[in-house]
Structure formats: structure tokens, C-alpha cells
Amino acid sequence: MQGPDSVDSAGHPPESPDDEPFELLEEKAVPGLLRRFLTTHHHLLGLLFGGFAAFVRMGKKNERKGCLFWVIRLIYWCGYPFLNKKITTLPFPVQLRRRLELLGPTYVKLGQVLSLREDILPRSITDELKNLLDRLPAVSFERYRELIEEGLGRKSEDMFVWISPRTLGSASIAQTHKARTVRGEEVILKVVKPGIKKTLKTDATLIAFLGSFLQIILPQFQPKKVLNEFTDYTLREVDLRLEANNAETFAANFRDLPDVRFPRIYREYSCESVLCMEFFDGVKPDSAAARELPERDRYHLIEMGAAAIIRMLYKDGFFHADLHPGNLLILKGHLCGFIDLGMVGRFEDNLRRTMLYYYYCLVTGDAENAARYLTSVAQPAHNGKPREFQRAVEDISRRWQRASNFQDFSLAQLIMESVNMGGKYRMYFPMEMVLMVKALITFEGVGNLLMPGFDVAEVSKKEISKIFIGQFHPVRLLKESLRGAPEVVDALVKAPLLITQTLRFMEHATQTREDAPLAGARGTLFAGFCLLSGTVVFVGAPNFWPLGTVLFLKAAWLVFRRT
Description:
The chain has helices at residues 33-61, 67-79, 85-88, 92-103, 105-114, 123-129, 141-152, 196-217, 223-238, 240-253, 288-291, 295-316, 349-363, 367-377, 386-402, 411-420, 431-450, 456-470, 474-482, 485-509, 517-540, 545-560; strands spanning 160-163, 169-170, 174-181, 186-192, 260-261, 274-278, 282-283, 318-320, 328-331, 335-338, 344-346, 379-380, 427-428. Strand 2 (169-170) and strand 3 form a beta hairpin. The strands form 4 sheets. Strands 1, 2, 3, 4 and 6 form a 5-stranded antiparallel beta sheet that branches. The longest helix is centred in the first third of the chain and has 29 residues, at 33-61. It folds into 3 domains: 33-135 and 199-235, no CATH class; 282-472, no CATH class; 481-560. By secondary structure, it is α+β, with helices and mostly antiparallel strands. It is built from 22 helices and 13 strands.
């Protein structure tokens, strides 16, 4: 990496083209929708016939016979002359990975996302997709500077003393270099590659069409939903202003936890296609330098990491969705730094609370309620089996509790296997759940690198208990109740009309005995009061729905008791 001391007399780092670790990107015209469709269609057909080839090879090996085998074998031989033999002779998961790489950055990104979906895809496929290339060709340094100047509308010399010619990273969407601003700040410049936005939009259209088609053939895997989630996430990553927003949101959420750092964003040097952010000088947690730290410092880092990730997931509902050891840094002073914040996950408040209760029940040993909360998150298919799924999750949770140590069965492994069982019982989880599992697996893996055999449940119990208890703090409950204040006021304004109409209805529906004319009126008034109170509770304080339900049932009983 070029540092501030390795600059020439003009203030620029020396050119070192021989040190460039990435292949040069050959910039081509972005293909139109029709041409892209034909290319995609070609690889899909190749993959289909490659699947037939794998089926035929397996059938021969197992001496399979039957009508279906011979029909597929006939179809395969009809297309054999047109197939790429180098690819179709490979195992099917490898064929899928290779064709995604040939289709380009969008499909590489798609494969990386699909590699997380072990809940709906076979393990052999997800394992192979994890081998997808993440070091893609980079644009030349001259072209990189041009992209910066085009995006910001200024000469690079007016903004930066130097920009390192050495590429730090080049992935599907952007590439990064180190630089120094004219004010002397060390920064990282992230620039979207040319043509990628148009390519992504074209591919998103084709992927949406593909999802609708696959939904008809393979509805049990919910391909339409999975592919729509992918395009939503990926299209957001192209606008680097959103990553800047994410970094500032994280920094605001953690302003009371100084040991957890997120890069500062330099808005004056950032735009939709260029992101300028603070350079973090640190080491990766899987490096030898990290493992050589004193045990006390390593344990402190694990505690900070646990506090940060659990807080993101279960308190803020806004979390880093692309966590891996390369996106975590150990900074000077033993601080924990998070980088590459383009992909984030969000839990709606109800889902966040449910997942908080699920995780709390897990670490405190309540397997029954943990299974109940996890089942409530899943969306059952028309032939789903929620009760069987809940029992299976409860069984596997109890097995985890009986495990003697981390190596036998880890907490992240438990959650991953629980979610993965959803496919078996036709219970499907939102993408955010899968990203949550990835975050926990990363944290557990990094923690085990720093301190082999550490217990993530024990480390995280303190933080999750604090968040859990905080859910029932009177001030928090009052704030949540006041969120519905406008609806409560509206209900109170309409209350007189509601009471009048309710009383008229009840007067017609009930008959008052002549010897006690006020008894019926008294019951009617009380029923009206229960009905109105129940309405106010449901509108203004939905967290107290059991009370509202009791009031509605009481009103109904008073009415129909007298009919």
C-alpha cells in the first residue's frame, strides 16, 4: 500500500504498475436488452442441458432405468453437438458457478447472494457458489481518475494531493484506491465501474423475468421472491450516496460506544458514483498480528464485537449485511472498525422484537419459546407444516443445550440449521433472516480465531439481556404508546358519535324488563364503554392487545346476553 512517505516531489506516490494485483478491465460498450437476453438465454440453455448431462452420468453410474431416464437422455443427445464440452462435463454445481462468472458482475453478485440461501438450495450448490470470484478486473489508473473527475466535476489535483495507482480492491460494482485530500486526511476512494449501472438495470429486468418463469416450474424454492430481493439489494449498492447514509446512520447509532468505529464520510468529495471515506489503519482479525495480541485485549475485542453486532440486530434493527473478516478491522487502541457498508439489513420493529426474544430465549436456555418465536417469523407455503417445524426447531435447540462445548455445536450453527430446516417443512424466511445468520456466523468465526473455543452465547448474554430488559422500561413503553397518539386523538374526537351509534344499535338489539327499566340501560352503557375502551387500546397501544381483546369480548357478552 502506498503511504504518505512514499511520494515524489510533486506530492504523488510513485507509479508502480508492476505492483498492480488485479487484471485490467477491458471496457466495452454496454450490450442492449435484446443482446443481453440472448447471452443470458444461451447460458441458461447450456445450464439446462448441463443438468441433463449430470443426470445422465448419475443414471449410468447407478444403473438407472425407466422412461424418464431415457427421455432425458434423448433430449441431452439432441443438444449434445451444440454444448460447450469443457463445461458440461463438470459437476452441475461447478457448471452453475462457471456460467455465472461468464455472465459477468451482476450474476457473480447473484451467486454470492444465493450462496447464503442454504434454507432453500442444496448444500452442494451453496458450497460451490461460495467459490465465486470476488477479485474482478479493475479499470486502469488513468480511467479511474477520469471517473472521479467526471463524477465530482472537478480536477482531481484540486481535491487530492495524491491518489495511489495501486488498486486495493475490485469487486462486482466498484474498485477502491487510497488517497490524501488537500487538507492532509488519509482517505479511501470508492468508484463505481463504468457501465455497471446500466448493465445492472438490464440484468435486473431479465432476472425479474427469469424469477417469474422459475416460479411456475419450481414454486417450492420461491425463486421470484429470492431474485426480487437480490435485485433490490444490488441496485441500491450502485448509488454510493446510500452507503454514505448507512455509514452516518451507524455512527449515530453507536455514538455512545466509542470503542466501535465506522468510517467518517467526506461529503464534499462524494457523489452517486464516488465515495470518499476515512482510511482505517488497522489489521484484519484473521491476521497473525491479531492473534499475537494479549489475551485480555483479544477478549475485550470480542466483547466489543458482540455488543456491536447484537446491538445492530436486536436494538437498532439496522445491521451490516455483508460481514466477513475482510470487512472488520482491529484499529489502534484496540478499537473495532467496520467497513464496506453498502449492503445493510433492516428489521421492521415487530420482526426485530421477535428476533430479540428468540435470541434471548436461546442464550437463556428456553428452547420451547425460542422455537415458537422463530416459527412465527417464517412464512408457510400452502403446504407448509408450521407445527412440525416448531417441534424440529425445539428438538435441535435442546440438542445444542446438551452440547458440551463450542466445537460440538455452536450457537450460529444452531440458528443456521434451524433456518435451513425451513425448506424441508415449506417454511420460508425473509432475506434479512439469512443476513442475520451470516452476521452471527462471521462474529462467531472471528471470535474463535482470536480466542479458540470461546462461547458466543456466554459472551453475548450480558448484552442481549440488557437490550431485552430495556424493552420493558417505562419510558420506552410510553414512547411506543405515544407513537399512536394521533390515532388516539382521532378516536376520542369520534367517540361521541361512536357511542351514540353503538347505544342505538344495542337498544334495538336488547329488551329491557319492565320491572327494571334502568338495568338494561346500565348494561348497555357498560357495554358501550367496553367497546370504546377496547377501540382506544387497539389504536393507541397495540402492545396491550390482550386488554383490548378482553374489553371487546366483555362488550359482546353484555350485548348477546340480553338478546
